[in-house]
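Title: Prediction job returns without error message
Component: structure pipeline
Severity: low
Priority: P3
Assignee: unassigned

Description:
Job completed but the reporter wants confirmation the result is attached to the right record. Sequence as submitted:
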Amino acid sequence: MTMPRNDPWRWLPPLLAGIGFALTLAIFYPGIMNYDARYVYLDAQRGFYGDWQSPVMTLLWKLIDPAAPGPASMFLLIAALYWLSFALLATALARRSLALACAAPLVALTPPLFALVGVIWRDVLMAACWLVAMALVYAFHARDRWLAAARITALLLIVFGVLIRPNAIAAAPLLIGYALWPHSFSWKRMLALLVPAMLALVVTVQLVYYGALHATRQNPLHSIMVFDLGGITYHSDENQFPAKWSAEEMDALRGRCYDPSYWNVYWNGECKFVMARLEHELHLFGTPALTRAWADAIVRHPLAYLQHRLSFFRTFLLDPQLVMWTTDLDNPSQTVFADRPAFMALKRMHDVLQPTPLFRMGTWLAAALAVFALGWRRRQSADGAFVLAASGSAVLYVLSYLPLGVASEFRYIYWAVVATAAGALVLFAPRRAPADPVKDAAGSTPSQATASSGS
């Protein structure tokens, strides 16, 4: 059902998104704090900018906190961005299918997407920013008057997302390419953009973190190195750490200390003697000595390194992981919002679904690959450009955890979940009539632009 511009039903999809926003407030307000969020909030209160989380998120929280002190300010921002993106997407889809437009806010309420909207994690904030960026360009790609402003806003949101989660650098170029060329997808053009965009984003992170904000270096990359050294030690049966261990400690490193799904065992688990030695006794954490030991271990034992990384990625993709945070930080033995029937109903639904494939990261990687493959034939259209950019960035984002991941939690791939869902919605949109092709910024039609780029 195509909807004319003066049809009164055109307001139904954004109205449903507004109802979804109100429901989010009723269930989650003022937002669920977890330990990571509390660290960021406390840093914001005292004006400390460290790079273990994101100094940009710390600054943002400091700026918006007076509007609604505590978790509420960040929660309201995340929820507003999330529902704005689905409202924009639904409004754009309503031009061709009212049913599909109404489905968009309903998809936003499904457990894999909705369960994390009320939890204050930077992964959720990043995903909300990126989804708004994509939806803005998609909603205005055929309106020359507004397209330039939509592109600029989208590019700023994409870069902001990277500043929130720097490991997103690998996935961002596809979104940047979409913001620049929203009318068609050219793989050659995207390949040409990939490396320069990644390098520019790396430089941007450095300039903002350490130039503008003077962030304290807390060496988050060294957590990856400790995890890798532990994994290589386990698989090679030889000590790879730049430290000496007792016979009992070495036996533990060869056995029970290794958990392929988390590095935390070396920090605060039963093998916390590792970080105690590296950080407090030998003061090696954050120094070139640890970096050299990591590089040497990979060179000497590449197969053990691959075994370790593949073991991690297998658990990351296939094993049940933490999804929804429900612990009350002020009373850890209790469930947060236990007196709210709506929240507890959502929690019960989450608890039933959490062990199923619906909440497995591998499911969403497979779904993103499927959406990308199905969207390929439409790559010369605006719909295809959206589908391929969203699902392609989802795939790259999940794959970035193969070399960089140190923990397995569903939140880490939240962008892949919302991007794949949004891509699937656009994938099912009825094809546009070919009679009135939309011109891009250079004045060419999508088919002409694609042909000239060699796709």
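Comment from assignee: result matches the submitted record. The two ends are 32 Å apart (CA to CA).
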